[in-house]
Write a structure and sequence with these properties.
single chain, 342 residues, Smad3, Chain A, Tumour Suppressor Smad4, seven-stranded mixed beta sheet, six-stranded antiparallel beta sheet, 20% helix, 22% strand, globular, metal ion binding, nucleus, cytoplasm, SMAD_FHA_dom_sf, transcription regulator inhibitor activity
Length: 342
């Protein structure tokens, strides 16, 4: 009995230490509330929570289940992640959480939750834009363009033949998208097909199954230092998830990502990405809005573009607020090629 009590006390002390280390003076929940929450957990739950908090989500596969009264998951997120969260409406469960359908309990693992990014744009330049910008089509050769920037022929097959290396594969009916990883204007590695409802894309920290960019980079050209530095900052990367209301991106890294899709774009003639801060999530593709937009002939300076593609740049932004005028100037970025082409 003494041994079990000592084990419990050890987990409690470690969690208290983690809570204070992250900014005790700014937390919303009181110290008594945090201690009361820990008393509700058994030893195994304390161990799971301790592993998740100390690893900052790197090993957060297990759930910590409690009755949903008084929103214990909100208290847990306030205590170990975001002291300024006010209610459950600001949170969205990550696809990694296995208890989403549990009718009795709610998961209180704070790293099974993400903050919902508001649709308003947060575009802060990291350096002043150049005094002028020539059209991107004058700087890029056709073979350097992304698949979704090539001339489109809408059909029921996946537009794999439009990729830069001549790939021409039929779309597997089970695949809902393929991923293309880019470093600057260079496609790196083969297209990555996705069949499962969600997929992880990470730098060098494996989070379950998914696309490891470090592995792909072994087959890359010799990149400049800016690419290597950016790739090292990707960390846990992003989780992409196909859900009932569209495609969501969960930013699990410690740096922002920048997302562009026509269902997010307010001005197609002057595209600008939406900034998704670390720990936030955003619906980046709305099929209802996309079906409406497909009645229009969208084009940018490259020519026609695929309304069913989403682009994500890690760490660095691009567009009218940045020195990088097009995404092909970003060090590390991802293209989500959704299917079918409508």
């Amino acid at each position: 009995m003494f041994m079990f009590g000592k084990r419990r006390s050890s987990f409690t002390r470690r969690l208290e230490k983690a809570r204070k280390r992250r900014g005790d003076e700014t937390r919303r929940s009181s110290e008594d509330e945090a201690k009361g929450f820990l008393k509700k957990l058994n030893d195994d739950q304390l161990e799971i929570l301790c592993t998740a908090v100390e690893g900052r989500g790197r090993d957060a596969s297990n759930c910590v289940l409690l009755p949903p009264e008084n929103q214990p998951h909100v208290l847990c997120c306030q205590t170990w992640r975001w002291p300024d969260v006010h209610d459950s409406g600001e949170l969205k469960r990550l696809p990694v959480c296995s208890s989403v359908a549990d009718p009795v309990y709610i998961c209180c693992n704070p790293f099974h939750w993400s903050r919902i990014c508001m649709p308003n744009r947060i575009c802060m330049p990291d350096s002043p834009p150049p005094p002028y910008s020539r059209f991107a089509k004058e700087r890029l050769k056709p073979e350097d363009r992304a698949p979704s920037e090539m001339p489109l022929v809408c059909r029921d097959t996946y537009p794999g033949s439009l990729t830069t290396d001549g790939e021409d594969s039929m779309m597997n009916p089970r695949e809902w998208c393929k991923l293309a990883y880019w470093e600057l204007a260079q496609r790196v590695g083969p297209l990555f097909p996705v069949e499962m409802p969600s997929v992880n894309v990470f730098g060098d920290v494996p989070i379950g199954d998914g696309l490891c960019l470090k592995t792909l980079a072994h087959h890359s050209f010799s990149p400049p230092d800016s690419v290597r530095r950016t790739r090292c900052k990707i960390g846990l990367g992003v989780t992409l998830s196909r859900e009932d209301d569209g495609v969501w991106v969960y930013n699990r890294s410690e740096n922002p990502v920048f997302v562009n899709s026509l269902t997010l774009e307010e001005d197609p003639d002057s595209p600008s990405p939406t900034k998704v801060p670390a720990d936030y999530c955003l619906c980046v593709f709305d099929p209802v809005k996309a079906s409406y937009q497909n009645h229009w002939n969208f084009a940018n300076c490259y020519g026609p573009i695929d309304t069913n593609s989403v682009r994500i740049s890690f760490v660095k932004g691009w567009g009218r607020h940045y020195s990088r005028q097009e995404i092909t100037s970003c060090p590390c970025w991802l293209e989500i090629l959704l299917a079918p082409c409508r």
